[in-house]
Amino acid sequence: MSEHKPRAPLYEALVHYRKRKDASFHVPGHKDGQAYSDIWDINEEMALARVMEIDATEITGTDDLHHPEGVILEAQQLAAEYFGAAETFFLVGGSTVGNLSLILSVCTAPGDVLLVQRNVHKSVIHGLMLAGANAVFLSPQIDAASGLATIPSVETVLEALSRYPGAKGLLVTHPNYYGMGTKLQPLAQLCHDSGVPLLVDEAHGAHFGLHRQLPPSALAQGADGVVQSTHKMLTAMTMGAMLHVQGGLLDRSLIRLRLAMVQSSSPSYPIMASLDLSRCLLQASGEKLFAQALDLASQMRNEIRAMKRFGLVELGASGDSGAYSIQDPFKVVLYDAAGELNGYALQEALEACGCIPEMSDERYVVLALSVGTSQQDVDRLLAALQEIAAAGSGLTTGAQQACSAELNPSEANISTWNILDTPAASQPQLQAKNSSQTMPMAANVSTPVLFSLQPVATALIERIPIEESAGRQAAEMVIPYPPGIPILYPGEWITIEIKTALLQLRRSKAKCQGIEDSSLRMINVYQSTEQRREHRESER
């Protein structure tokens, strides 16, 4: 009796499409790559050649993502079964479109309230803008040893649900970019007791729950809507992601409509095929692949622990921590224990040795492993660390030189969340605050912050040096990328701590999105109440 072999129906349909070599009188215009045939004759190794041969469109036999009835429907059903969802939707715009569609499906009327963990991806903020929703921001828990933020505590969520019984749901990010997290099930239970869904941005946890040594998935812990970047920690092509739903608290018909709005009407078939193939690969060989990758991750950690020069972010460093009880074994977070290289400089040194980390911040470097990581990769990384350690204090990178000047110990961490216990809005004209008042105190649960797409008149915005920005309201987002978590959103008050963080980002030469001045010299802020009053009077 032959063993059942997992299928990849969409991928198989595209392979069949390529083999048929039909005459194409449909889009795309490259005609299965034929437009580049002369180039291929010169360079038969053209990187895109094989991809273009399966870059199909909605024709007979290839189905339609926005009305799936054939191979795409079957591929999504197989994914739902494998990942443990009631229904799965393929995403060709990354987790971004999953977050947007979830927010737009629960916040259906302007002014709806959504409880949102403050340290969320920028796509969540954009979803709030599109929905015209009120965000009630919840402060995350902080791991004492590392200073890194995870998810809000049970107590914070309970307080938020009590204060805002009309909230449409709770949205959290789990795990964080560093692979850290804690239990989601208590939050799911609180949400369900209140009759609202738990939405989880699990972009960096698509592999969770797929092996006994991996943390449990958000779905297994009761989340209602879960967005996963299959391309990040699994094996799909970049931009390939999935949205999983279960239970009866989400309107799936509305989710389909929202996805049709935010996804392209011409979705990439190679990306969709890679989602199908990724699931098929794991279903066929996942146990073996994960076991091998976990062994490599363990080997890397053990070798780094033996190097006195470097430290690791690990469970147990803070004792019994409610903020940090889960660590993704495939995220290795290290730092220079000697304190000579900050995170940016350590990343630069690793890159000089041919090892490219996922990201870095002021203190840490994040290394992302996966089932695609090889023994050769691990050996190369360990050799690079040995080389950096051997260089000792003689190694100075451009990033380290940029950060060493004017840095004091109080600037050790950059917070990517800022909760203010005062009414707020992302539009200055909705503010009732007097600019002469002192800055409000931080709180675990914010008052509602109204987000909108309504543009603000240029005359109501001024550009000032970041050194002078404390006490003003930001008129633009500032998003260190990666990880893509806004340190400021439009309308948010700039505290002294945030100003300090912005200056630190500038010295570190960090890459930031959203802000007009990418050099972080100037920032756009809303005019003060007095300035806006003078502006209105001048227009009379």
TrEMBL record:
<comment type="similarity">
    <text>Belongs to the Orn/Lys/Arg decarboxylase class-I family.</text>
</comment>
<dbReference type="InterPro" id="IPR015421">
    <property type="entry name" value="PyrdxlP-dep_Trfase_major"/>
</dbReference>
<dbReference type="GO" id="GO:0008483">
    <property type="term" value="F:transaminase activity"/>
</dbReference>
<dbReference type="InterPro" id="IPR000310">
    <property type="entry name" value="Orn/Lys/Arg_deCO2ase_major_dom"/>
</dbReference>
<keyword id="KW-0808">Transferase</keyword>
<dbReference type="InterPro" id="IPR052357">
    <property type="entry name" value="Orn_Lys_Arg_decarboxylase-I"/>
</dbReference>
<dbReference type="InterPro" id="IPR015424">
    <property type="entry name" value="PyrdxlP-dep_Trfase"/>
</dbReference>
<feature type="domain" description="Orn/Lys/Arg decarboxylases family 1 pyridoxal-P attachment site">
    <location>
        <begin position="9"/>
        <end position="309"/>
    </location>
</feature>
<keyword id="KW-0456">Lyase</keyword>
<feature type="domain" description="Orn/Lys/Arg decarboxylase C-terminal">
    <location>
        <begin position="455"/>
        <end position="504"/>
    </location>
</feature>
<dbReference type="Pfam" id="PF03711">
    <property type="entry name" value="OKR_DC_1_C"/>
</dbReference>
<dbReference type="InterPro" id="IPR008286">
    <property type="entry name" value="Prn/Lys/Arg_de-COase_C"/>
</dbReference>
<dbReference type="InterPro" id="IPR036633">
    <property type="entry name" value="Prn/Lys/Arg_de-COase_C_sf"/>
</dbReference>
<keyword id="KW-0032">Aminotransferase</keyword>
<keyword id="KW-0663">Pyridoxal phosphate</keyword>
<protein>
    <submittedName>
        <fullName>Aminotransferase class I/II-fold pyridoxal phosphate-dependent enzyme</fullName>
    </submittedName>
</protein>
<dbReference type="Pfam" id="PF01276">
    <property type="entry name" value="OKR_DC_1"/>
</dbReference>
<keyword id="KW-0210">Decarboxylase</keyword>
